[in-house]
Structure formats: structure tokens, C-alpha cells
Specification:
The protein is an alpha+beta fold and 254 residues long. The protein contains ten helices and four strands. It comes from Plantactinospora solaniradicis.
Length: 254
């Protein structure tokens, strides 16, 4: 049985969708899963921006995941991610506000508390994670570790060989297929991994096609609005001129 380390960031609905497939493969006996994390917000920083000083939007979730890893194990970190992802992406979004404005999504901390309660852990672990600067340092260490070992650059990334490599980005899937197709996809995908000269197979993806992730479009719309505000703050003469988009968004949230 192939041992796979699945690198995740709760921020990505595509990553969560692939994680559902990976979990189904494990249930069907095709693979054995381990878990690791990568921060897309850190990936997207400029080289001169210090990730240690970043107020990451999904920092609470990542720090809670790393605290679970350290207090329990990586399997518990994976359990947390599974429930957190379901709460974030599979729950129907709230109705529009009466004035027609966007309804804000729960914060990373709020969603993390709900996920902890759902797996039988104390929701106060979120506050413990946020209150301890060492948890963000541990997130960055985990993130850099995967970058150094397998040159990970995004999620979902699957690391073969029990985390020793090779590592590949993807697959990015639109929906969770039936069991037979799950296994077929794994056969084809894992076979392609053996061709180390094959870099990329890709087609256009549409956000609106993720019908089985009800909150995906709603959350994407909220992010687009935040990105527009951040881009305005990046304009020449604006407060965050020359900053990365992630850094400008972080500063505006603060």
C-alpha cells in the first residue's frame, strides 16, 4: 500500500476537494495517508517580506492544526482539517444581507473552534494556538521543511514514499467521483507520477462547476472583494505600494 503525505492549506477549496478523494482512497484500501501543511499566503509573499510578521488570514487554522500535531499526532491534524474543510466548503452560505451587501464568512478562528468541537476537542485550543507565538514559528518551520525537502509550491501536494518523495501538485478535481472512478483515477495519476520528465497536464477550471461545494463561489466572491481593496492599497503612492497582495490584504484586515 502506497504511503502518501497530503499537504494542505484550509484556504483552498480545490485542495479540500482533492482531500475528499484521498480519504476515499484510504477507506478503499488503496493508500495510507499522512498529513502536512503549507501556507499559500506565505508562498505568495515577496522575497523581502518577513513571513514571521504576517498576520495570515488562515493563521488561526494553521496554528491550531500544528498544535494538534504537537499535542497528539499528524492523524489528529488530518481529522481537524477534514471537519474544518467540510464546515468551510460544504455548508450552504448564508442568505444575502437585506441591504444586498455581502455576508462575511466566519473567521478562520471561528471555523476552527467549531471544527474542534465537532471532533471532540476543546475549542479553547484555538485561543491557545493564537496566543502562543511558537505555533506560527512551527507553521513556518513545517512549511519551509516541505519546500526544502520536496520543493512544494502549492496545494494539494501529494508526497509519495511516506513523505520522502517524489512530490507532485494535484490532482485538482472538480467533484468527488464514485468509488470505482476514484480507484481508476488513482491508477492513472500514480502511474503518471513515475514519469519524472512529465511536468504538467492541465485544462481550464471553472469555479462555478464545483456544485458539491456550496460555499465555494460565495467565499471566492468575498475574496475577490478583499483583493480589489488590497490592489487599491498597492497603487502608486498608496500605503502598501510595492507590497505583495497577501501582505496588503493582511494589513487591511488589521
Amino acid at each position: 500500500m502506497e504511503k502518501i503525505t497530503f499537504l494542505f492549506d484550509p484556504r483552498s477549496p480545490w485542495c479540500y476537494q482533492t482531500s475528499r478523494w484521498a480519504r476515499r482512497l484510504e477507506a478503499l484500501g488503496a493508500i495510507e495517508l499522512d498529513w502536512g501543511l503549507l501556507s499559500l499566503e506565505v508562498v505568495n509573499l515577496h522575497a523581502d517580506e518577513d513571513p514571521a510578521a504576517l498576520d495570515a488570514e488562515y493563521g488561526a487554522a494553521l496554528r491550531t492544526a500544528i498544535l494538534l500535531r504537537d499535542r497528539y499526532d499528524r492523524a489528529e491534524m488530518g481529522r481537524f482539517y477534514s471537519v474544518l474543510g467540510a464546515l468551510m466548503w460544504e455548508v450552504e452560505p448564508p442568505p444575502a444581507a437585506p441591504a444586498g451587501g455581502p455576508v462575511p464568512a466566519p473567521t478562520s478562528a471561528e471555523s476552527s473552534r467549531a471544527a474542534l468541537a465537532a471532533i471532540g476537542r476543546d475549542p479553547a485550543l484555538v485561543d491557545a494556538a493564537i496566543g502562543d507565538p511558537a505555533t506560527w514559528t512551527a507553521v513556518l518551520d513545517e512549511h519551509r521543511g516541505w519546500q526544502d525537502r520536496v520543493r512544494a509550491f502549492g496545494v494539494p501536494t501529494l508526497v509519495f514514499g511516506g513523505g520522502a518523495g517524489p512530490a507532485v501538485f494535484g490532482p485538482v478535481i472538480r467533484e468527488l467521483p464514485d468509488d470505482e472512478t476514484c480507484l481508476e483515477l488513482w491508477t492513472h495519476f500514480s502511474g503518471l507520477v513515475g514519469y519524472d520528465y512529465l511536468f504538467e497536464v492541465k485544462r481550464r477550471k471553472e469555479l462555478t462547476l464545483r456544485a458539491d461545494l456550496p460555499a465555494a463561489v460565495w467565499r471566492a466572491d468575498l475574496r475577490i472583494q478583499a483583493m480589489r481593496a488590497a490592489r487599491a492599497a498597492q497603487a502608486p503612492g498608496a500605503p502598501h505600494e510595492n507590497a505583495s497582495l497577501e501582505w496588503a490584504m493582511s494589513a487591511l484586515r488589521a
